[in-house]
Automatic annotation (TrEMBL):
Protein name: Oxygen-insensitive NADPH nitroreductase
Top-level class of the enzyme under EC nomenclature: oxidoreductase
Alphabetical list of NCBIfam families matching this protein: PRK10765.1
GO terms, molecular function: FMN reductase (NADPH) activity
InterPro entries for this protein: Flavin_OxRdtase_Frp, Nitroreductase
Gene from which the chain derives: nfsA
Coiled-coil ranges per UniProt: none
Amino acid sequence: MNPVIELLNSHRSIRKFTERKIPRELFVELIRAGQSAATSSHVQAYSVIHVVNPENRQKIAALAGGQTYVAECSDFLVFCADMKRSTEAAERAGAEVVRGMTEQLLIASVDTALMAQNVATAAESEGLGICYIGGIRNNPADISEILRLPEHVYPVFGMCLGYPDQNPEVKPRLPVETILKEDYYQDEQDEAQVAHFDETMKRYYLERTGGNKDTNWSEQLKPLFTTKLRPHMKDFLQGKGFKMQ
């Protein structure tokens, strides 16, 4: 197995960082690596806010659900889907631009995720740790106000970056056979494979916590589809100009 695949397979979320700071030169190279990700029609529909102000870091940590590592990591980024820059460029080129289409929201969100994952991989290749912060979508309007995000720009997620002060195990993933389908969608074996994966995750949580966390993958999913629904996102996105037409 080559070093790149080994690196990708070794990903862990890091939530405890040393006080060591990432050198500026390396930080900029990580962003450049992010820009090398695939992008739909070369739109590059993203902007990255490097949150340096300590007070703002503290505010975002609280708004994201009390995730203290947002304030404690070396560098914190907010990855934003950005259709403002590209639509304005097309207008200046003479186009009668149509804004707010669902396709534009999808393009910007996918571009942003691809760019961020490049940053994450580049960071981990340099011995850094990262942690995605989806909790900023708990309060996207407040986050947008702090970051002064204009219309047609929305915060997709944050990312903590820094030198790790912990060494957690790699969290198991679903078997390849569960997610890889041949020719057409087949789910005849999904229930049995998920049940087996639940046992794997139960052992993982018990071993990781010394027996203090007795749960599995399916149990962990329940809040996502019952209470952590973020129904405010639709109105928020429409208010940002993404009408989803």
